[in-house]
Specification:
The complex is a heterodimer of chains A (393) and B (447). Chain A has 393 residues and is α/β, with parallel strands linked by helices. Chain A has three domains: 1-14 and 160-226, Up-down Bundle (Substrate Binding Domain Of Dnak, Chain:A, Domain 2); 32-159, Rossmann fold; 229-392, Rossmann fold. Chain A has 16 helices and eight strands. Chain A has a four-stranded parallel sheet with strand order 2-1-3-4, with helices on both faces. In chain A, strands 6-5-7-8 form a four-stranded parallel sheet, with helices on both faces. In chain A, helix 1 (5-17) crosses helix 8, helix 7 packs antiparallel against helix 8 (194-206) and helix 13 (308-319) crosses helix 14. Chain B has 447 residues and is of the alpha/beta class. Chain B has one domain. Chain B is built from 19 helices and eight strands. Chain B has helices at 15-30, 48-53, 61-70, 75-84, 92-112, 118-122, 143-154, 182-206, 212-234, 245-250, 252-256, 262-281, 304-312, 322-325, 341-349, 357-370, 385-388, 391-402, 421-446; strands spanning 39-44, 57-60, 133-138, 161-165, 291-296, 316-321, 375-381, 406-411. In chain B, strands 2-1-3-4 form a four-stranded parallel sheet, sandwiched between helices. Chain B has a four-stranded parallel sheet with strand order 6-5-7-8, with helices on both faces. In chain B, strand 5 (291-296), helix 13 and strand 6 (316-321) form a beta-alpha-beta unit. The two termini of chain B are 22 Å apart. The chains are: A alpha/beta (393), B alpha/beta (447). At the A-B interface, helix 5, helix 6 and helix 14 of A face helix 7, strand 4, helix 8, helix 17 and helix 18 of B.
């Protein structure tokens, strides 16, 4: 029985840091399969509707060793970590795997999982990435039906509309609570640190949603608003598929910044969009795929009518962020393509930004500190109401 | 023990005529805007027969990056891309092409203002004609669709773009395999349907009806050329090999994007004749062939001559490769020249990076057995995550299942800064020694 906010938070932290413990206990308790889900677009409600637990597979902090023997070292840290976890038997807790995303690096890693864990189903349906085409919607609907059929096959449980609706409601409730917390941060509340927010998101990706929602409710019941101080306000942008190291958040704060908003996958992007409860559930899950890209454009999709750069400028206007830290997971091709568009838009608005490429192992803290401090100083010099470091001295 | 000797590359003579065909093609592309021809930019699949039938000029993005790199003219485009903000780890085909797009756009803007800049005329990277529209049809790699999306954005978003989405042939079902299974049939129908929609789009762009007869005629030439090419490739199972992977690299442009016509059939016919003649004469592609290797990886265009020489000097015939032998109309029996769309769709799906690992393993194994391969050279292509994805699993599987050793060397499609020549040489020599040792053991055991 969780009694306090601190206890609830500790549970989330434990799950985020050590998912296996939670998953092993969950399986023992429920006698149901645990299905590993690859990011970023799979509708997890489908799996939950069978009684199984959908878990978005996380990057491991363990240094990559055996993974480098099976996947090229110029694949992104997340995909190499998946290969590494596979080779080390760390994904054995999962009974099957599902993927909806066609990123070539992700597919490379998922193929490693399929080959090395050949006794487990590893299912992929390609959710079409060209969002504008007249046939895209019908294709996405077909893929949702295919995912449902496969989930039924591997779990042996048929999925009713009622079960889907119930899972959609659970997931929406969870997203809504998390959005409430992120919205408060955007509006000046600094009670939760960026690392704590990441813990909430990552644990949501792993846990049973009703269980996670109960923890969030406990945390929020004791929450007390804490006004943000006058440090430089930053927006964190990017970092797909996996979480950036929290040490980077600490570094930004040590340099005199406060993070007021983000579009990270393990942040606002994950919780941006609810599945419409007003529609039939199968149709609603297909719509969710399109709605997400409208709400926070993703560089892995191509859609003429939405622009991540425009979204970013609007987000900065809403949050009052004064600068942007673009966090790019090294070798992430989709992000590499989009970065110049972000750069142009930010420069056109005279908004300082800094590109940080993150690696799976090692954070060159002191090199980054110099660059972050220089960016923050640039922001200070721009703003007549702020003192520069020199003036403060 | 192998040792380096004087270069002994015996290039296929009939490829010489092919160089002019490529130059003529690019000259026509470079003058397209001046001639007020309608231009389409595209990437990935060989849609050129459709464009040709529609009376368009077609400029293939990867082909242009490859040409710049092969001629060592890629640096200005790569620099432009870097200055614009593209990170150096981005696919170098895309990075080079996007840089070329920036330079071409800048040159066009100057031209429109009446500024004649000799530097632009002299720099091939600046000479792409501005497109009237863009078509994307990219199998295997997710990068392909994003690349064209950013070309579209970089050029100002006013130029129409059409996406053909090619599903990855993952192989979920037990009946899945190369050219077989429900997944294959459904994907073929799905892509064929999109090609008909593409033709509707092209009719809108050109303002004239599509010439179906021209497409049928073009595809009949391509089918003939592809059949002849496959026959000539199969002849290379002969020992010693009459041609090498590097000869087939020299004819990739022809089969992949040059105009379909009788000259294409004639070109490949001459190659087949020369290959047959070499076999009849006992003439080999390299002097004193001692080893036969398979090349896995996309071509390292900056190093074509270097690599051909490096292997030949060590008496290595690189006989076949995934990049040359598994794409480019390689299953001509699928093409119905009276009704070519579905067979074309199937070829677009058959890109050698568009399959799950098991399919890639099976066709690699078949090729290694067919061509009598002693070992595999994996080009660990730094910015091509599509080709490199399955390579390490493939190396393991080939060793375990058919006892073939392999080495990896680092390089790239279009960015020569990633090439590690010394590592290749030392690793190659080590593998050749291992092959010698294995042969000696087998000889002793059999006597």
């Amino acid at each position: 029985m969780i009694r306090s906010s601190a206890e609830a938070f500790q549970v989330m932290r434990n799950v985020a840091q050590n998912p296996d413990d939670y998953l092993t206990k969950w399986k023992a308790r429920h006698q149901q399969p645990v299905i590993g889900i690859f990011p970023m677009n799979f509708p997890v409600e489908i799996i939950a509707a069978t009684g199984a637990l959908p878990v978005i597979i996380q990057d491991s902090r363990e240094p990559i060793s055996e993974g480098n023997t099976i996947l090229a070292e110029f694949y992104c840290g997340y995909t190499r970590s998946i290969a590494d976890q596979t080779m080390k038997g760390q994904l054995d807790v999962f009974d099957a795997f599902m993927n909806a995303d066609h990123c070539i690096q992700l597919l490379g890693a998922v193929d490693v999982v399929r080959e090395m864990l050949s006794d487990k189903p590893v299912y992929f349906e390609h959710l079409i990435a060209a969002m504008d085409d007249s046939w895209t919607k019908e294709q996405v609907q077909k893929k949702v039906h295919a995912f449902i059929a496969e989930a039924e096959r591997i779990t042996g449980t048929s999925i009713s509309d009622e079960a889907l609706t119930s899972c959609i409601q659970s997931n929406n409730r969870n997203r809504q609570l998390l959005r409430q917390i992120f919205e408060a941060r955007r509006n000046g509340d600094a009670q939760f640190s960026p690392a704590e927010l990441q813990t909430m998101i990552v644990s949501s990706m792993i846990m049973d949603k009703d269980e996670h929602t109960a923890l969030l409710e406990t945390v929020l019941a004791e929450a007390a608003s804490k006004p943000r101080d006058n440090r430089i306000r930053l927006h964190l942008s990017g970092h797909f598929c996996h979480a950036p190291r929290v040490e980077l958040f600490d570094l930004l704060e040590e340099c005199g910044a406060v993070i007021v908003d983000d579009d990270l996958y393990t942040g606002s992007r994950y919780i941006s969009t609810d599945v419409k409860e007003s529609l039939a559930p199968r149709a609603a899950l297909a719509d969710w795929y399109f709605d997400r890209n409208e709400n926070i454009p993703c560089p892995t999709r191509v859609q003429k009518t939405v622009n991540w750069d425009e979204y970013l400028i609007n987000a900065l206007n809403k949050s009052g962020a004064e600068g942007v830290i673009v966090m790019m997971a090294k070798f992430c091709e989709a992000h590499m393509f989009y970065y110049p568009e972000l750069r142009k838009a930010l420069e056109a608005q005279n908004i300082p930004h800094l590109l940080i490429e993150t690696e799976h192992e090692g954070i060159p803290v002191e090199t980054l500190r110099t660059r972050v401090e220089a960016t923050i100083e640039r922001i200070r010099r721009k703003s007549p109401t702020r003192q520069t470091t020199q003036e403060s001295a | 023990m192998s040792s380096a000797t004087q270069s002994s590359v015996n290039r296929l003579k009939s490829n010489d005529a092919g160089r002019n065909m490529i130059s003529d093609y690019w000259d026509r592309i470079f003058t397209a805007n001046e001639r007020n021809a309608q231009v389409v930019w595209y990437n990935g699949a060989a849609l050129n027969p459709i464009f040709q039938a529609a009376g368009l000029e077609w400029a293939h993005g990867e082909a242009f990056s490859a040409r710049l790199s092969a001629q060592k003219l890629e640096k200005s485009a790569q620099l432009a891309a870097q200055e614009y903000g593209y990170v150096g780890e981005l696919c170098s085909y895309a990075r080079t092409h996007l840089g070329a797009a920036l330079l071409a756009k800048q040159a066009r803007e100057k031209f429109d203002k009446g500024i004649v800049d000799n530097a632009d005329r002299d720099d091939m990277a600046s000479r792409l004609p501005m497109p009237n529209f863009i078509v994307n049809c990219y199998a295997g790699c997710s990068t392909g669709q994003q690349w064209d999306d950013f070309t579209h954005r970089l050029l100002g978003k006013d130029i129409p773009i059409f996406n053909v989405s090619l599903p990855f042939l993952w192989g979920n079902r037990t009946d899945a395999g190369y050219l077989q299974g429900q997944e294959w049939e459904e994907a073929s129908d799905y892509v064929a349907d999109q090609l008909y929609k593409l033709i509707d789009f092209i009719e809108e762009q050109t303002g004239r009806p599509f010439d179906w007869e021209a497409l049928r005629e073009g595809m009949s030439y391509i089918k003939q050329a592809a059949e002849i090419r496959r026959e000539a490739m199969a002849m290379c199972a002969n020992m010693p090999a009459p041609t090498t992977f590097w000869d087939w690299i020299a004819s990739v442009a022809h089969i992949n994007f040059l105009p379909a016509g009788p000259e294409l059939v004639e070109y490949f016919s001459k190659i087949r004749e020369e290959v047959a003649q070499r076999i009849a004469n006992g003439e080999s592609a390299i002097k004193d062939e001692k080893y036969r290797l398979y090349f896995d990886g996309i071509m390292n265009w900056n190093k074509l001559g270097t690599l051909a020489k490096l292997f030949a000097e060590r008496k290595v015939a690189v006989v076949a490769g995934r990049y040359t032998h598994k794409p480019f109309w390689q299953e001509p029996q699928l093409i119905d020249t009276d009704d070519p769309i579905r067979g074309m769709a199937q070829h677009y799906l058959l890109c050698p990076t568009n399959h799950g690992f098991q399919t890639i393993k099976n066709f690699t194994k078949n090729d290694c057995e067919f061509y009598g391969i002693d070992g595999i050279v994996f080009h660990s292509t730094r910015t091509c995550r599509a080709f490199t994805g399955p390579q390490q699993m493939l190396a393991r599987a080939m060793k375990e299942e058919i006892g073939i050793p392999s080495i990896f060397f680092e390089g790239d499609v279009a960015d020569e800064s990633f090439y590690k020549g010394e590592l290749l040489e030392s690793r190659l020599e080590a593998m050749l020694e291992a092959i010698d040792v294995r042969r000696s053991r087998n000889f002793i055991a059999s006597n």
